[in-house]
Amino acid sequence: MKGRAPGVAGRLGPGPEFDRLRTIFARLGRAGRGLGDDAALVRVGGTTLAASVDLSLEGVHFRTRWLSFGEIGRRAAGAALSDLAASGARPLAVLASVGLPARPRRTRLDPGAEIMAGVGRAARAAGAAVVGGDLVRSRRYLVDVCVLGIATRPVGRRGARPGDGLWITGVLGGSGRALRVLRAGGRPRGALWRRFAEPEPRLTEGRWLASHGVHAMIDISDGLAADAAHVAAASGVALEIDLGLLPCWPGVPARAAAASGEEYELLAALPARFGTREAGAFLRATGVPLTRIGRCVVGAGVRLTHGGRLVSAPRGFDHFAVR
Amino acid sequence: MKGRAPGVAGRLGPGPEFDRLRTIFARLGRAGRGLGDDAALVRVGGTTLAASVDLSLEGVHFRTRWLSFGEIGRRAAGAALSDLAASGARPLAVLASVGLPARPRRTRLDPGAEIMAGVGRAARAAGAAVVGGDLVRSRRYLVDVCVLGIATRPVGRRGARPGDGLWITGVLGGSGRALRVLRAGGRPRGALWRRFAEPEPRLTEGRWLASHGVHAMIDISDGLAADAAHVAAASGVALEIDLGLLPCWPGVPARAAAASGEEYELLAALPARFGTREAGAFLRATGVPLTRIGRCVVGAGVRLTHGGRLVSAPRGFDHFAVR
User: Fold this and answer.
1) Given this model, what pLDDT does residue B154 score?
2) Burial group, residue A301, by CB count within 10 angstroms (0-12, 13-18, 19+)
3) In what helix (H) or strand (E) does residue A263 lie, and over which residues does it extend?
4) Ranges of chain B with pLDDT below 50
5) pTM for this one?
6) Distance CA B130, CA B96 (A)
7) ipTM score for this prediction
8) Contact status, residue B310 vs residue B245, Cβ threshold 8 Å
9) Is B237:B157 a contact under the CB 8 Å cutoff?
10) Which of A96, A122, A181, B35 has the fewest C-beta atoms lying within 10 Å of its C-beta?
């Protein structure tokens, strides 16, 4: 989740976006208690509610010439639901604020209705209902999705411990590859297109891991290397990742896969006893592979190796970086 | 609340924004069950959670030359909290998505931090915590606030019955007056400025009314006449309002007060037995006046009178109207 930060200022990864967040959360002071992790946890009666917001903007997160309005809505909701997945929560309800130009572009269908229908499809697939929304005239399209879920066993970013194994669901790099094709004026096809346009939040997978003792989790939205840094900072440990172990999209080099954002796979810190037998059970239960890519050790930051050699971290996705 | 709509398509007030909403909610179909009222109601364990989102955009809802960044955040959160007030809910948690330009304009303070601090001030004043947020680079400033609350006695728009009295909290017209002064290049002062820049959601007032048998409630965000039309449509009754009874901001004519948006007062349909004695108890409990301005009758729509004569409805605030 972009721009999410723990309550304790200073426990954030590096980069200009996070410098800003440090200032912001420091200013929030007492009213900001509980900030952190992919989803916020709120006690409601005897239940733990997980809540998260995810803002998608035209020109930043999507282009209307790349995606249909339905895909824009579905993708925005998928990104928000992915935060619930990383918290081990079961989705309950979705609210969406939509900004759209006063005059619809020349299209057969109403863009606002299409966007909301896409949000509705993602909600339905996740077992949640769309319960509210706001609709505002805007120069550019925007979709802000708020998701609410129930967390029976809430998982955060700060529970990783030295000795934990680092595991990743699915394969990485498809989203970045699709983006390269689109930027070059091409059109990704088949599975690559679906990977980009219809990301599937790893909800079943997140709940399975939550019920099997995961110590910390994050969803890959900014890129593996960047998101691993958030877990390292929040948990106060160092993460060692062997890029040679990375499950990559066909034809995508490991380094590119580690930089690819909006993948919506889960990075999990699991106790050392969790091994290939447990990963097999995960695959049978969810249909998604779970691959060990490294470990947590005493220290700070992320250490990437490839073929036994230290490699520098690829750039993740940082909205506020100058480029 | 702008753009909020009941689950049953067709139960909306008139206007192009609502034509769009009809299409949208019709498309949501099954996943959109429960849509309606100022806040959505979601059962969580044994508790009823009230949830609402409210999107504020630069150039539509605020201008950075009129308001400080702190005021922008506080005002956006106040608007969202007002939806909880109209639902009779007690605020619990706030999440905010903020969009802001990559390079802060020449200012001593970080605009993002200022906006979030303003959100935090409104949350704190309402007894809620800021639990999450998202931060995204954007061409123009935007703040989308999601509020969560507990509704012990949830109130909606659709419970008004023929014979009910229509009551309004506080006085109307200050927000519109301040806007006129600003648009003319002036600077509202004192109470008028606070009315515009620091609207106070009627949370205590909403809960008092909820616990005293209110049948239906709405907060005045689009203007009294427009919001009354939503109650009439949702409840399947006609609303008669006597503009001569309207409590108006000093110097503001009743017709302008009935058109003034972003007032965040509550319009309440109360059983006929509710009278001046009860309004006195409300004033003693909350410090805010409660004035009877009309009644609900069999029929449809809103009927405005002034000095016994029928008057046409003033224009409310409709984002999608061409003007």
Assistant:
1) 93
2) middle
3) none
4) 1-12, 33, 318-323
5) 0.89
6) 8
7) 0.88
8) no
9) no
10) A181
- Distance of alpha carbon B43 from alpha carbon A39, whole angstroms: 19
CB contact under 8 A, B60 and A138: yes
User: Locate tokens 């935090």: which residue?
Assistant: B120
Number of residue pairs across A and B with CB atoms under 8 Å? 246
Q: Mutate which of A2, A49, A221, A317 to disrupt the B interface (most B C-beta within 10 Å)? A: A49
Mapped onto helix, strand or coil, the DSSP state of residue A79 is helix
Q: How many CB atoms lie within 10 A of CB B182?
A: 17
Nearest CA in chain A to B26: A113
Contact at CB, B40 and A95, closer than 8 angstroms: yes
Q: What is the mean pLDDT of chain B?
A: 88
Which of the 8 DSSP states describes residue B209?
H
Is residue B189 within 8 A of residue B266, CB to CB? The reply is: no
CA distance B186 to B192: 12
pLDDT tens per residue, range A9-28: 334 455 565 666 667 766 66
Helix%, strand%, coil% for chain A, nearest 5? 35, 25, 40
Q: State the pairing for strand pair A129-137/A90-100.
A: parallel
Q: Give pLDDT, residue B182.
A: 94
Token pair belonging to B112: 């993002």
Q: How far apart are CA A168 and CA A154, in angstroms?
A: 19
B181 within 8 A of B189, measured Cβ to Cβ: no
Question: What gap in Å lies between CA B285 and CA A231, rounded to an integer?
Answer: 49
Residue A149, token pair as written in the block? 């879920």
- Minimal Cα–Cα distance from B110 to chain A, Å? 8
